[in-house]
Design goal:
The protein is α/β, with parallel strands linked by helices. The protein has 6 helices and 9 strands. It is globular, with a radius of gyration of 18 Å.
Length: 251
């Protein structure tokens, strides 16, 4: 199996549980440091792509050229049927790359909130890992419209679009299924602590840490399940691609 590509869009992105979960599922990882302006790697060298979150929003695209570059890369993955999974900013970027608006949400979400899977999630290769009411971690102020032809897989009580699929090989999740306690702590510290969090998000580091203590274990189990499903999906696609490209034996 060719490696998966992790796309880093923020200097404080640690990938949470994702690196270990992908390794446990039997796949190697390469990292594209998109936030640092590194050129995009060759798409055909990878079995799948995961586009991670960012402190930047789509509205910053003209001042942060990497956003345009990652969007073009994501669009190429969709067009080439390369499995792609966008997380939070990555989900917004995928929608935007495919022509859907990204706007301010009516409600900012931070912390653990219940997920509301749609009927289509039951048969989805990735989102079938979630049941109604499962808690997912959020930290976002924007939301997205669905790209043309996309299937809504999950909503939320306050923000309607939480997960979707485009075609058979591309997904976006507004929630951060990949975070661990250490990454959340890093984000809290980098944001500036309780005063800044209270002013911008109406919460505190103490409240987030308390929620992490009670919710992160089950959250991480579901995150690992989703990542394992993505690796398996990418592996099957990769094996099928290799088989179709192999020379046919002479009769």
């Amino acid at each position: 199996m060719r490696p998966l590509l992790f796309v880093r869009n923020d200097p404080f992105e640690t990938f949470g549980i994702a690196s270990a979960a992908v390794a446990d599922a039997g796949a190697d990882v390469r990292v594209w440091e998109a936030i640092d302006g590194a050129p995009p790697p060759a798409l055909d060298e990878h079995a799948g792509v995961i586009v991670f979150g960012s402190a930047f929003n789509i509205e910053h695209a003209d001042e942060r050229p990497f956003i345009h570059e990652v969007a073009a890369f994501a669009r190429s993955a969709v067009e080439g049927d390369v499995p792609l999974l966008g997380i939070c900013f990555g989900a917004q970027l995928l929608a935007w790359a495919l022509g859907a608006p990204v706007v301010k949400a009516a409600h900012r979400e931070i912390g653990f909130v219940p997920l509301r899977p749609e009927p289509a999630a039951a048969g989805d290769p990735l989102l079938a890992a979630f049941a109604d009411g499962d808690e997912v971690f959020q930290w976002h102020m924007d939301t997205f419209e669905l790209p043309a032809g996309a299937t809504l897989l999950a909503g939320g009580d306050r923000v309607a679009h939480q997960a979707y699929r485009v075609g058979d090989t591309a997904w976006g999740t507004q929630f951060h299924f990949e975070v661990d306690a250490a990454e959340i702590e890093l984000w809290v510290e980098e944001f500036g602590g309780d005063e800044a969090l209270a002013a911008a998000w109406g919460t505190t580091g103490e409240a987030l840490r308390a929620a992490v203590a009670t919710s992160i274990t089950a959250h991480a189990e579901r995150g690992r399940a989703l990542l394992g499903r993505f690796v398996e999906f990418a592996r099957r696609r990769d094996e099928a691609s290799e088989a179709s490209a192999a020379p046919q034996a002479l009769a």
